[in-house]
Amino acid sequence: MFLISNLSNETRDRVRNFIAGSASGVACTLAGHPFDTLKVRLQTEGTKGRFNGLFHCLTTTIKEEGFLGLYKGATPPMIGMSIINSCMFGAMTIIKSKIHTDTTTPISIPEIMLAGAVTGWVVSLVACPIETVKSKLQVQYFGVKVYNGPIDCIRKTGIKGLYKAFIPTGFQRTSLWAYFGGYEFSVRKLRSEDGTISVGRSFLAGGIAGTCFWCTNFPFDVIRSRIMTQPDVKPGEVPRYSGMIDCAKKIYKIDGLKGFWKGFTPCLLRTFPANGATFVAYEMVIRLLK
Question: Solcar repeats at which positions (predicted)?
Answer without folding.
Answer: 12-98, 107-190, 197-288
